[in-house]
Amino acid sequence: MKPATCLLSLSTALLLSTAAGAQDQSIQGSFSRSIGDSNARAYVGADGAASLSRDSYLQNGIQEHAFDMHVETHAAAGAQVFGVTAEAFRFDAEASMADDSGSASGTQGSASRLLRVGGSTYYAAGEFDLTWQSPRYSSRVLNANRNFYLALGVTLNVRATADVTAELDVTLNANPFEHQVRLTATPHVTLRGAASASFNAYLLRAGIWASLNLLDMTLETPVVADLEDGLSGDVIVATQPVSVSMVAYLDRGTVSCARRVWGVCYWWRTGWSRVITLPLVSWSSSPFQQTIPLF
What separation in angstroms does the CA of 82 have from each of 53, 143, 172, 193, 253? Predict the structure, then answer.
């Protein structure tokens, strides 16, 4: 198994326009990476964005000011083993704050977050001055077991499993006095799996077994919208080495006399005895770390 080329994409955008006292700004950035090949691979992606809108206008001869700021961050990871794709982790968080000195409604704000691990959703509505740390969630995201019956009593068995653990820290500070919204999310995700394929011909069994350390990643996405200082943010990605090991093996069936009929012994397979083990692949990637600024 050869590792596929890692895919890295960064998309950035900056918008600044001024018309009739209004000023709008936005920044965004994204990251994506795929590790492995068509038989076993992990993929991960993350992005962050922020926007800030300011306006000045005359109302009853008085100069009024209004602003609307929004920050958001997203992350997702998954696995594909033997063509079966499974979502391992997904996280979405966003926060916004708005104020208009010419309105009686005052400062308004909202926040939300969504966390999915192994297909299960954990959700809690956000609020101002919020710090939230999730428990560690563990789940089996992939469990494939297929038998193919071939000629002459030969059976092909294909198995694949993938287990994910994830934990998450979220810090949200939406401060109406400082006119700032700051959102920092730090998810940590590990994804490990195993895959095997074996031929079974009654008293002989041959196959390949693979151990897959598909993903061990920490993301950090600090995104800030500030009325005075503008917008800033990063997507910080750090991954530990990813490893794949694969061995081939040959087993011999063990038999015993199941019963005797008129002195004739009917033999029955009772188990397997390992004859040979042959290492095929032992591969490990280098650690990876990158900071992607939002522009």
Answer: 48, 11, 40, 12, 27
